[in-house]
Amino acid sequence: MNCPCNPNLLYQDCCEKAHLNIESVSTCEALMRSRYSAFVLVNIDYLSKSHHSKTRPSKHDYKSLEKWTKSVVWVKLEVLKSTDTTVEFKAYFMENGKLDVINETSEFATENGHWVYVKGL
Predict the structure, then answer these.
(1) How many domains does the chain have?
(2) Average pLDDT over residues 14-25
């Protein structure tokens, strides 16, 4: 299977490593890519685990997120800019027959020795 974050790579050589061991993620961009792939694959446990403890949504919010994630078709990811602690990206998806996009600059930090998502800026 190709990796959702980069169709030129195999999932097993890319985001699967992060999904199996979050400590293996070495940059905030790699974490953001692995989170995009987790959205595509509806890996809610990974989305929770890769979210900073102080900004992590409740279990109820994750149930709503899971329902929404299953209702859309993810099209592609574009990374626009990456720094040491932020990533600007566009995540394209189809919802109700219409193409839509999430355009966000995300902030990341390390917590407990690994990268985590803090918030969208």
Answers:
(1) 1
(2) 97
Angle in degrees, CA 65, 15, 36, rounded to 5: 30
pTM above 0.90, yes or no: yes
**Tokens 């195999």 sit on residue:** 10
**CA-based nearest residue to 79, from 35, 49, 47, 114:** 35
Report which of 13, 70, 76 is spatially closest to residue 44, judged by C-alpha positions.
70
| CATH code, 14 | 3.10.450.50
What is the Cα–Cα distance from 16 to 22, expressed in whole angstroms? Answer: 10
| Mean pLDDT estimate for the chain | 97
Two tokens at 30? 């790699």
Q: What separation in angstroms does the CA of 112 have from each of 64, 76, 115?
A: 27, 30, 8
